[in-house]
Amino acid sequence: MATKLPPTDAVVVGLGWAGAIIANQLVDAGLKVVGVERGPWRDTARDFNIASVTDELRYAQRQELMLRTAQNTITLRNNPTQTALPMRQWGSFHPGNGTGGAGNHWAGITFRFQPEEFRLKSHLEERYGADSIPDELSLQDWGTDWEEMEPHYDAFEKIAGTSGRAGQLASGRQEGGNPFEGVRSSDYPTPPLKQPYSPTLFAETAREMGYQPFPVPSSLVSEAYTNPLGVTMGPCTFCGFCTNYGCANYSKASAITTVLPALIRKENFEARTHCEVLKVTTDSDGRRATGIVYVDSAGRRWEQPAEIVVIAAFTFENVRLMLTSNIGEAYDPATRRGTTGRNYAYQTANNVQLFFDDKNFNPYIGAGAVGMGIDEFNNDNFDHAGLGFFGGGSTRVTPIGATPINARPTPPGTPRWGSNWKRATVDNYASTMTIGCEASNYSSPNNYLSLDPTYRDRLGRPLLRITFDFTENDLRMAQYVTEKTAEIARRMNPRQIVANPRTGPWDGRPYQSSHVVGGFVMGADPSNSSVNKHLQVWGVPNLFVVGASAFPQNPGYNPTGTVGALAFKAADGIVNHYLRNPGEMIST
Questions:
Q1: Same structural domain for residues 316 and 364?
Q2: Model pTM greater than 0.90?
Q3: CA distance readout (Å), 314 to 16, 232, 297
Q4: Domain count, the chain
Q5: Hey, is 145 helix, strand or coil?
Q6: Does a structural domain hold residue 425?
Q7: Element (H or E) spanning 420, and its range?
Q8: Is 515 an active-site residue?
Q9: Given 274, 515, 534, 577, the catalytic residue
Q10: Is 552 found in the same domain as 528?
């Protein structure tokens, strides 16, 4: 039995990027807001101080910042004929734990999606024909467009202090920026990071081949910066301990370095940590959310009534909460009916490794989002006619820092231990680099999220079940973009190259990326989407579900910039539209 608490204006579940942004916007609009977070409160000075943060064993190997699988995990399978089994240790992806969420250990790469991505299905049909999209894909438009999204991208980049160089401003094209991006209202808040040797060499080679390289947009700030909330960040020092780690320098933007320091000081905001939400409560006909039920660290259950409920957790938990709360109709792949769990998508990671005899890249110098990239083979930036696939990838060199335990680059055929392995490690450590191609994963009717019928968590709730595999579309695309990446690698004249295109089936054991999206997607039609363009749940007007769970499919970019933009978009919808007509679906 849950103890009922006094009501509040709004309750926000999850205090990562999305939840912190929305909570702050609602507080500034005069609402009383309660933020509920499953993990602990994170603070840079205490948790990520310079004396302890560069601990590879603690953070990269033992995954200090990740959700404990004893708290919650998922089950996985490749197709519905298989029995899903639980993930006992996080492999393919790394959900975060605590305030800041996965934003604490992310790399910081901060792309905007291209304008065509928000109307992808319509765009492809217009360019290639009405029957061009194969049945194995379930692509759809987002229900919004670039003009609506751009101001919210701008707001997020200003909060994060994102560094980069614009390619398309309203005043015209800028040399050195990404020529494929949408027209921007302003340049990046801070200039590009300085580039180490390997991305510089890649950019020089790509430029010689006729491509247009640009600095990877990065929410690791390049200079001291104070954001619109009055929070100051310091410049990145290229320490090499970034992805999987918190940042001791206040250089990597996250909710704990950009939003929460300002939000926590506001009188009408309260944060409750170590509290796990069990369900969203609704009225008798399910058309109004009445609040949430959560359990605290002592095992006590509480009901928090609220006029507005915002679910802004990681993709997996957003979808599981909707399923366990009976919000929407669960997706059925046999009939293709239902929207809760539909259009789950991932990312298709490819790379080419280059071994040189005459280079010293000083690979210990690095950061999660320093680098140079090209977009000629991303999304629909190239002609797909006759290729047998859609999609593409962001091709780039981003040296994250070659740390002592994990950085052991050796060519194929090297023994896995012993004196020859040690010699190969010494010979190749400084002279090896990688060109990555982080590519799209387009949704399929057979890839979806559901509740597992067998396995339950420590609180008795069904685990979330992932049914996922890469489609033929994605595998053909992976082969194509990897071959294009290898062409650039060969031009750089290494001793040896090793091309690694994504092949099937999907294996959940090795880490690939945490860019999991979909399952509660946005759109203009309630028959194939769960939320409208304001992230408002169809049929439950005071419930908003925000995050990468809203993506109908995944393009060849990192998702965080778009998650941040959607958070600002949802907050704008609540403050400037919903509050004028409480209890109604937003019509504009």
A1: no
A2: yes
A3: 8, 26, 20
A4: 2
A5: coil
A6: yes
A7: helix 419-428
A8: yes
A9: 515
A10: yes
